[in-house]
């Protein structure tokens, strides 16, 4: 399966439609190129599995503590904001 972007990676992981997930983009524009989505009361993002560290926002007011939900989901690392889960860096 070829996943082409952050929203598609998260939507596929959750079993959602990509269009439905994109409606939940968090503070579009304030987080720069970092795509963050709200899922219920959680914030989620994704990055390529080979990335060394978690993604960061250019605005320090919007930096999150990311924890890994899945370290290699079709080449993507799925991340959720929070500190309750162990990291998969």
Question: Strand order across the biggest sheet?
Answer: 1-2-4-3
Task: Report the end-to-end length measured between terminal Cα atoms.
Answer: 23 Å
Considering DSSP H and I runs of 4 or more, what fraction of the residues is helical? 10-25%
Could you give the count of β-strands?
4
* Element pattern in H and E: HHEEEE
Give me the number of helical elements.
2
Enumerate the spans where pLDDT stays under 50 for 5 or more consecutive residues: none
Count of discrete domains:
1
Structural notes for this entry:
The protein has 89 residues and is of the alpha+beta class. The chain has one domain. Helix content is 16%, strand content 27%. The model has no long low-confidence stretch (mean pLDDT 85).
Task: Give descriptors for this structure.
89 residues, alpha+beta, 4-stranded antiparallel β-sheet, 2 helices, 4 strands, 16% helix
